[in-house]
Amino acid sequence: MSRFYNIFYAGIVASLLSGVGCSQGIGSTEEHPPNIVIIFADDLGYGDLGVYGHPTIQTPRLDEMASEGMKFTQFYAAASVCTPSRAALLTGRLPVRSGMAGDRRVLFPDSELGIPADEVTIAEALKEQGYATAAIGKWHLGHRPEYLPTQNGFDTYFGIPYSNDMDRVATGTREQLFGNPEYQSFNVPLMRDNDIIERPADQRTITKRYTEEAVSFIRAHREEPFFVYLAHNLPHVPLFRSEAFEGVSKRGLYGDVITEIDWSVGQIMDALEENSLAENTLVFFTSDNGPWLAYDTHGGSAGLLRGGKGMTWEGGMREPAIAWWPGTIMPGLVTEAITTTMDLFPTAVEMAGIEPPSDRIIDGRSLVSLLKSNGTEAVHQSFFYYRRAELYAVRNGSWKAHFITEWAYSGENERTQHDPPLLFNLDEDPSEKYDVAADNPDTVAQLRDLFDTHKAEVEIRPSQLEARISDE
Ligand code: MG
Question: Ligand 1 centroid to 42 CA: how many Å?
Answer without folding.
Answer: 4
